[in-house]
Each structure stands twice: as structure tokens, then as C-alpha cells.
Amino acid sequence: MAEILVLIDHVDGSVKKVSLELLTLAGSLGEPAAVYVGAGADAALPTLAEYGATTVYVAEAADLVDHVVAPKAELLAQLVAEKSPAAVLIPSTAEGKEIAGRLAVKTNSGVITDAVGVSADFVATQSIFGGSTIVQSRVTTGTPIITVRPNSTPPQAAPAAGTRQDVSVALSPAATAAKITERVTEEKGARPELAEAAIVVSGGRGVGGAEGFDVIEKLADSLGAAVGASRAATDAGWYPHQYQVGQTGKTVSPQLYIANGISGAIQHRAGMQTSKTIIVVNKDPEAPIFELADYGVVGDLFNVVPQLTEEIGKRKG
Amino acid sequence: MKIVVCVKQVPDTWSEKKLDPASKTLDRDSVDGVMNELDEYAVEEALKIAEATGGEVTVLSMGPSQSNETIRKALSMGANAGIHIQDDGLAGSDAIATSLAIAKVIEGRGVDLILFGSESTDARMSVIPAMVAERLGLPQLTFANKVNAPGDGTVTAHRLTDYGYDVVEASTPAVVSVVEKINEPRYPSFKGIMAAKKKPVEVITITDAGIEPAAVGLGAAWSEVADFAAAPPRAAGTVVTDDGDGGVKIAEYLSTQKFI
């Protein structure tokens, strides 16, 4: 069975959930082979093996992670040439998509981004135009390079050998032309990452101000959720721009999305329409967001949301 | 400093977009075209850098004839000249072919900085800046929310990441893409709009650019849309009016769905 290369997303050896999802997906397409770049491989190996990696290609050289995007694409291009995989799967993050783009140019291959599923014949499903249209696409030239969105496949343990194989690549001067001289971590507390979170709690215009996000954050914390915001809220400066969900912000596809005080303009819907379950709280019964609601409450979010937070606290004991 | 800023005409962000059943590409006739919102930030950044370093800004767009409106908008904001890559043979080009055409046209012009918006609001792939950097062998400083290009042959950017940002340094020439809110894009002034009418826009065909016709367009795409359909409508949910127990009711619903 042909190998499916999966580029692993991790933080110093702590493997991100999306990588396990991609290993599970790869297992339905062929033989999953993880590609691990950077330090900390020893810590990651048992997890990668548990989720189905038969081989783990490890490239620990600092040069690969100290330069923007290009070195990872060069490493993958070398592996594509050497191993002739049936496909390459990459997490559909900002960096993942850029790696995929460069890899496609290098290997003369077609690329599909933002897939939400891939079938056994490598037909990728994409949800485009803000979730209004479902597209089936396939790569027709070269090795299919597909970036897959987080939360597309439930990760399933499928123990495999996870044999470590160290690889090195001689980087071209162009690949090391943009050097990362410092990594700055911004305080964001213990909440999960917005794009990866299983639950997202969002606030919009109805939140009324920066201080109003306090009730949104409390609800999020009661559910272990990430906090999102509509463009109206980020444009007004009530919540930082990097938490914006929508057409010009992040696209999320969590198991549960709770929209509070958000009217549901197409700009916002484009970023959350594919969420599995959607809860809406809005005082305007005509708000278009109710069209998406699995369960909605017409009411003042400052009454409903704190009560919900309290009730969740009680039920969780 | 010589700066090229690449812009794309896209359907208005607020419009309903659909695919054309025959070509399975975006139906551009049924919607109003505007400059991709994120590109406005790239134009503004280009103008700021040019003003600070005594440089000049050329705006480049690939697309059908209507893309001229988007080029004119950038010119009315203050860009000095335009390049319009326009050829029927380009219709349906995928990202691979688009990056090829852009790289071919920019190559050899002695450009110091190539600026992009970080993604288009229609295709949303975010791959073109990286692909153009790859093709031209240039450093890539993408997803920047801060750019410093003082005109001394260096460029520094803050590249947004999951955890915060990376400080990235490179020498020019370089490719930079910028994110929303990096700056406050200026509105074209009346004077700017009038001046834009007289600014030169070079129209380039694929033959002019020395691009192999077989390398671009729908027929050359390395991926294809096999099929598409409107997303199935979501099943109608339950909507209740808060009678003082709305929060409890949601908790009950979450409990039946096993979220709590």
C-alpha cells in the first residue's frame, strides 16, 4: 500500500489534535507516514504510533524551523521524490497552506486547500462561499497535495509501528532567505486555539462593549471553549482582531458554536456555517443567524448567558 | 524603492457567490466586483513605504477587463502606474498558473518589494504569495501585521502565528503579504481619482509575458472541480423566547446533545 505523507503540526513535541485527525484520515487512504519537523520528536513518537503512523520521518535540524515556510516545503519535496507517496496531507493552517503551495510548485503537482474530507479515490470535499456550496475536487497532475481543516475527521487510535527514520535535506539558499529571529508569545490564557477548538463561544454587536465580553469568556471557560467575535465586535475594538470569525477572519468548524448577540451577516456566516451544532442567543427574533440555529433563544444575552454559565457549572458539579 | 502591489478584483464580500455550472468556476458576471478587501491594506502599506523611502508603487492585477476598475482604484489611492495581465487564455487559471503568470511578469523588472493581501475573499487559499516567492526564489515574509522596509536593502516583518508572532528578517527583493488591520487604508481623494485617469496602465497578454499558452487557463489546471452542489439546508431548529429560563433551556438542550 502506498504511503500517505502527513505533515505533523506540533509545539515542541506536543502533537496538535489536527495531526491525529490527519493520521486517521491517511489510514483510510493508504499507509500513514508522519513527517515530523523540529525538536521534540522523541516525545511525539508514541502518540504518532498510537494514531497509525507506520513510519515517522524525523528532521530535527534547527535550520528547518528557523526560516519561514520554504524549508518544510523543500523537505517534503525531497520525500515526495524519494518515497513516491500517493498523497500529501497537511493541516489547513496559514502556514500549512503556504507549505502546500510551495510544494505544489516544486513537485509540479496540483493542490487543494481547506478540504473537509478526502475519499478513498483522493476526491476532496470542500465547503466554499461560506458553506453555501459543497465542491468535490481532485488533483489531476502530480501527487495530490491536500490541506485539511481541523475538526474534519474524528481522530481514532490505530496502533502502528511508528518506526523512526531520520532524514536530512540540504536547503537551497532561497529556502533560508527569510530568517525567524524571534518568536513572541502573546498572553492568551488557557483557552484552546480558535481554529482547533471543539467548542467556540462568540460575541457580536449585541455584546455592546469590551466589558460585555466578560460574560462571553465566562461561558467559554465553563465549557472549555475558545472565544470568537464577529467583525462588528472586532472593528469596534471590543475584542482583539485575531479572534474574528468570518470571511475576512478565521473559519471554524467546531462541534458546538454558540453565537451571542450576532445578527448573522454573510461576512460572519462564511466563517462558522459548517459548525456541527449551532446555538443562538439574540434579542432580535428576525436576526438571520436564527436560520442556522439548532437551538435558539430570543432574549437578552446578559440574562441568558450568565444563567447558562451558572447552569453548566451546576450540572458539571 | 520599487514596489509592486498585487491586487485582485473579487465579488463584493457581502454578495452571494455561486459557481457557473458549465466551467465550474466562479460566476463573476452575476456579482459586483470590488478590490479584494485585504488588498486595500497591501496598497496602503505599499504607499506608506514608498512615501517614507522615496519609492514608487506599481499596481498589478491579473483578471478580465473589469479588473481595470480595481487597478484604477489603487491608482486613485496614489499608486504611480498599473500593470494589467489580461488574456482570455488566462480564464479559469488555478493558483499554480496564476502564480506563474504573476512571477513571469514581475521577473526582470528590478522590483525591491512585492506586496500582497494575505488572501482573497473569494478563493481564500492564501497560497499565491508563497508560490510567487517560490517561483522567483525570493524570501517570503507573509501574514505580516507589521512591516519595516527602510530602503536600505533589508525588510523586517511580524508574521502572525498561533502563539503570537515571529519576527522575520530578510534582504530585498522580497515577497510580503499583509493581514487585515495592519493599517488604515486611505480613501481616494477627488484629486486622486482625477489624477488616476492619466496614470499609465500597461496591458500585458500571455504572449507579451512569454507565457506558454498551455501552461495557463482552465485546461492547464492541475486540479479540477469534479462536482458541486448547494449545501443541504440545515434542518430547522427550535427557537424559543426567553421567559427568564432561557439559559436553563439551552443547558438542557446541550445536555441532551451530550455536550455537558
Give a structural overview:
Chain A is of the alpha/beta class and 317 residues long. Chain A has helices at residues 17-27, 41-50, 70-83, 94-107, 213-223, 231-235, 266-269, 301-316, and strands at 3-7, 10-11, 14-15, 31-37, 55-59, 87-91, 111-118, 124-128, 133-139, 145-148, 163-166, 179-185, 199-203, 226-229, 256-260, 277-282, 295-298. Chain A has a nine-stranded mixed beta sheet with strand order 9-8-7-10-6-1-4-5-11, with helices on both faces. In chain A, helix 3 (70-83) packs across helix 4 (94-107). Chain B is 26% helix and 28% strand. Chain B is built from six helices and 13 strands. Chain B is α/β, with parallel strands linked by helices and 260 residues long. In chain B, strands 9-8-7-10-6-1-4-5-11 form a nine-stranded mixed beta sheet, sandwiched between helices. In chain B, strands 2-3 form a two-stranded antiparallel ribbon. In chain B, a hairpin with a 5-residue loop joins strand 7 and strand 8 (154-160). Chains A and B meet through helix 4, strand 7, strand 9, strand 12 and strand 16 of A and helix 3, helix 4, strand 7, strand 8 and strand 9 of B. Strand 9 (133-139) of chain A pairs antiparallel with strand 12 of chain B.
Any low-confidence stretches of chain A, pLDDT <50, length ≥5? none
Nearest-integer average pLDDT of chain B: 94
Multimeric state of these chains?
heterodimer
Total beta strands of chain B: 13
Structural class of chain A: alpha/beta
One letter per element, helices H and strands E, the order of chain A comes to EEEHEHEHEHEEEEEEEHEHEHEEH
Instruction: Write down how many β-strands of chain A occur, each being a DSSP E stretch of 2 or more residues.
Output: 17
How many strands, what sense, and barrel or not for the largest sheet of chain B? 9 strands, mixed
Main β-sheet description of chain A? 9 strands, mixed
Largest interface: A-B, 98 and 83 residues
